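Same chain as my last thread, 489 residues:
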Amino acid sequence: MFQVSLKNIRSAAVVCSMALVSVATLLPSAPVWAQTRTLPDFTDLVEQVGPSVVNIRTLEKASAHAAQGNGMDEDMQEFFKRFGVPIPNMPRQTPRPQKPQQQPEEEVPRGVGSGFILSTDGYIMTNAHVVEGADEVVVTLTDKREFKAKIIGYDKRSDVALVKIDATGLPAVKLGDVGRLKVGEWVMAIGSPFGLENTVTAGIVSAKQRDTGDYLSFIQTDVAINPGNSGGPLINMRGEVVGINSQIYSRSGGFMGISFAIPIDEASRVSDQLRASGRVSRGRIGVQIETVSKEVAESVGLGKAQGAFVRGVETGSPAEKAGVEAGDIITKFDGKTIEKSSDLPRLVGNTKPGSKSSLTVFRRGATKELTVSIVEIEDDKPVKKASGKEDKPKASSAGQQLGLVVSELTDAQKKELKLKGGVKVDSATEGAARAGVKEGDVIVAIANAEVNSVKEFEAAVAKMDKNKPINLLLRRGEWAQYALIRPVK
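reply #2:
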């Protein structure tokens, strides 16, 4: 009853086929790449980089009695030491017989860590905390060969160390470009957690430039890092080392999903200096800085909360000689913008001592260009306090609405502090105390105007706007300080 010719069937098939093609061309193309993307395969990377990763064991000399320690093996000791957990005194399993007090020294295990081969002639990079204090360093390669390593040098500030073994033809790693590293990118770690050699873990980059130190911003990842991973490489999907696994964030001492790696560009700068001279030389200019808050930026007329806020200037320092003042905001160093305060010590620290650099500072609504000499960093000097042996002059209470009671400086105090004027803080409460002003501080300027006497201080306080914060320039020992006080209403 119902007949369809072969010709009609073929025509209908052609029409349907054309319709499907037309519909396919109209569908959005976005899901196509999502369907083709797969989870990463790390097998090739392990074969490529694995032979360049080494196990590092450290030994120290101790008497047989001292070697008994607290009953804890070296892996657990490294775990507690590195990640901030106090080492408990563990009871011994069995009583030990008494031994003579005079005992020969012997080498006992001290710790375990990881490292990676930088060059074919045996230079190896690791963490400073892995080798610091060790009497002997033993490096084990993936082919089970063991070498006694020489410590070329280590830098505790960056936690980078360089050791050398007597070998040639070693498989060296390739160093990557940290600038190309992206948040969310897959990365891999190889190390010896708890002595388990060549353990591979993987994850993603959680954040870049995470501030946890004065001279380094770290790469944050969720790669599993445990004691023994310290000093091992963080590797990108191109098989390049982009960091040294160094720290974890933990409340318990164990891995909690937050790990930190030293960027390889920073580590390379340190290792180059260690290789050349066995030590690291860093620059300093002698300023005490803090973050520029929105409140401070508004009070001094800076449009954006950026730069390094100069809270203090060291007496006789390169910064003081260059004309830097407390209250300045350093916005550029050698033409490089200072986005946050931690940028400045890193840039200055990486500058060769003895050289000169340019500073751009924002001061009282205007920008100034200064030239500063860089000197080598040294230990901080103790702060000298103003003498308080002389009879205290009569105090003024004019600044009570600021939480301040001040008095005149004696001639002896002016001479000791090398000041021409100023008023001494006898009491700091309320707003002044909250701003960090302390008894014994010397106020040398208020609201950007110099103060040489109590009379001038009282006049400045009388003129101030009681609804706005007021800035003070202070001297505390050898340091200048800058404080911002909200008046008590």
